[in-house]
Write a structure and sequence with these properties.
about 140 residues; elongated; mainly alpha
């Protein structure tokens, strides 16, 4: 994709974020996850619920530009942190099994926060751009 195409996609992405801002902010509020992160430290199987939040966020972010592939590093983090079911054996290997779930949520929630923040603040793609907006562009491989 050349620079001119990326600029068109960036403007379209910002417009889509603005159009979906109420639902993005609602999802951000719903994905507070205070209890689930506590459950990670409490070593409770309830931390596994965090995967649903992560999946919801990623589905929403994908819907903003379904024709654009998401960043491969992000997808690797997402894959490592979702798709698990709890078993009692997990308690013996807690950190390697559950930490990727928390990490995936934090990354997904970060991108959702940045989309909400810049969907409210920006009227058009800025130059120079703030780091958070640049990160959103990396998520969609536009940077």
């Amino acid at each position: 994709m050349n620079l001119a195409q990326k600029q068109v996609e960036e403007r379209a992405l910002l417009a889509k974020i603005k159009e979906n801002l109420p639902s993005l902010e609602k999802l951000l509020d719903e994905c507070d996850c205070e209890d689930e992160v506590y459950r990670f430290y409490h070593q409770s199987f309830k931390v596994y619920h965090i995967q649903g939040y992560t999946e919801d966020i990623v589905e929403k972010l994908r819907s903003l530009a379904p024709h654009l592939p998401l960043n491969t590093w992000f997808l690797e983090i997402f894959k490592a942190g979702t798709g698990r079911s709890w078993s009692t054996e997990d308690n013996e290997n807690w950190l390697p099994i559950t930490r990727p779930m928390v990490e995936a949520l934090f990354h997904a929630r970060y991108f959702l926060e940045m989309a909400c923040k810049y969907g409210k603040e920006l009227e058009s793609p800025p130059q120079p751009m703030p780091s958070g907006w640049a990160a959103v562009l990396y998520l969609y491989n536009l940077r």
